[in-house]
Amino acid sequence: MAWSSYQIVLAIVMVITGSLNTLSTKWADRQSAEGSDGTIRKFDHPFLQAVGMFIGEFTCLVAYYIIKICCRPQQPVEGEQPRSFNPLIFLPAAMLDMCGTSIMYIGLNLTYASSFQMLRGAVIIFTALLSVAFLGRVIRKHMWVGMFTVLLGLLLVGLADIVFGSPDGPSTNTNGIIAGDLLIIMAQVIVSVQMVYEERVIGRFNVQPLAAVGYEGLFGALVLGLLLIPFYYIDAGSFSHAAGNRLENVHDAFVQMGNNWRIILATVGNIMSIAFFNFAGISVTRELSATTRMVLDSVRTLVIWAVTLSLSWQDFQYLQVVGFILLILGMMLYNDIIIMPWWRRRREMREVNQNDRNTGERERLLGNRDDGHAVN
After folding, report:
1. Using CA atoms, how far apart are residues 202 and 219, in angstroms rounded to an integer?
2. Which residue of 46, 218, 227, 290 has the smallest Cβ count within 10 Å?
3. Taking a C-beta distance cutoff of 8 angstroms, is the pair 123, 191 a contact?
4. Quick one: pLDDT at residue 262?
5. What is the separation of C-alpha 250 from the centre of its chain, rounded to a whole number of angstroms?
6. How far is residue 332's CA from residue 46's CA, in Å, rounded to a whole number?
7. How far apart are CA 61 and CA 201, in angstroms?
8. What is the DSSP-derived secondary structure letter of residue 246?
């Protein structure tokens, strides 16, 4: 079935804004500016950037209520009436999202933007295992093969980062890259717990996706925003490059923004892109399918990769190519799209052809036997 113009626009918006999510964050990380202590340093404020992400998600809640007020509510389909719910059910999911996103942004500051996007594919493995334990899912053979293929792809992507060195220059910072990649993979464990919680608990209430994303953004922004206060008084040592080596220094971040307009542009762009990405992603799932959304998510990985190469943020890595191909193949196998359906159709055609040949052979033998009786 051909896509409508609206669906094509949604797909394009999802790919572009999804790519900008990662690229804008990495662009801000690469900027240098004078801080509150008069020292010029890189912009290293992952927790403040995570708050910006939650603000972007919160705008989905604003959009949800605007649509709810302006549009006439449709008669709900029988069996799909939303149950009343307490917004606090989103608090655990928001806390998990807060931890996962903060850790991922720390990892992004240490490794490549393309590797960041690819390594997020590890969520498939952890979500599958947790679904077996808490949702009673059964992992079929093709899903195991897909998980193993994804694991191979992740190993190659990580190996490429180690072999080719630091994303911020020709020097090799192996320890930093390994730490960044491991942090991103560790964050996927938290993200997978969040996904299982959302399916097990929130899924029972049939909450509108825009409302779910918005409430998680609201709670995430409030809690992490408040945590920025005690974070200022925590000395993180060499782990932090902010003024005073604070775990997070909001004042230093705003001073750097004031001294480098590119950081402001990247930060505002990140908030806006997250808002539009969530809206477009939800719309793509509703208008097309979750499978289409997954394919488009792979396309944005390619876009991020191409942009980082064109901007010389990284060198071309052939191991990363092989790793990315394995990740895509693994996702297709796990989600039972393209590869397995093609294999089943081919097997069915072989069986049909074999049955046709057997039927033809039987008819020929019966025909010969009838001819023999006729002769006698």
Report:
1. 15
2. 290
3. yes
4. 96
5. 27
6. 32
7. 19
8. B
For residue 120, what is the DSSP state?
Answer: G
Compute the radius of gyration of the chain from its Cα atoms: 26
For residue 356, give the amino acid letter.
D
Measured CA to CA, the distance from residue 187 to residue 91 in angstroms comes to: 18
Measured over the CA atoms of residue 195, residue 185, residue 243 and residue 233, the dihedral's sign is: positive
Q: What is the pLDDT of residue 230?
A: 96
Helices (H), 201-259: 209-232, 250-259
Q: Which two tokens stand for residue 16?
A: 């572009």
Whole-number pLDDT of residue 82: 58
Let me know if 363 is exposed, middle or buried by CB neighbors in 10 A (0-12, 13-18, 19+). exposed
Q: What is the DSSP string of 344-375?
A: HHHHHHHHHHHHHHHHHHHHHHHHHHHHHHHH
User: Given this model, what pLDDT does residue 263 score?
Assistant: 96
pLDDT for residue 375: 47
Q: What share of the chain is helix, strand, coil (3-state, %, to 5)?
A: 80, 0, 20
Amino acid letter at 60? C
The C-alpha angle with vertex 87 and arms to 204 and 187, in degrees rounded to 5, equals 80
Contact between 55 and 267 (Cβ < 8 Å):
no
Residue 116 · residue 103 · CB < 8 Å: no
How many residues are there in the chain? 376
Helix axes 261-287, 5-30, angle to 10 degrees: 150
Weakly modelled stretches of the chain, pLDDT under 50: 77-78, 167-172, 375-376
How many Cα atoms within 13 Å fall on the side-chain side of residue 119? 31
Predicted local distance difference test score (pLDDT) of residue 370: 58
Report the C-alpha gap between 29 and 170 in whole angstroms: 17
Instruction: Look up residue 304 and give its amino acid.
Output: I
User: What is the model's pLDDT at position 283?
Assistant: 82
Query: How far apart (Å, rounded) are the C-alpha atoms in residues 211 and 313?
Result: 36
Distance CA 181, CA 137 (A): 29
Copy the structure tokens of residue 96.
Answer: 């998990």
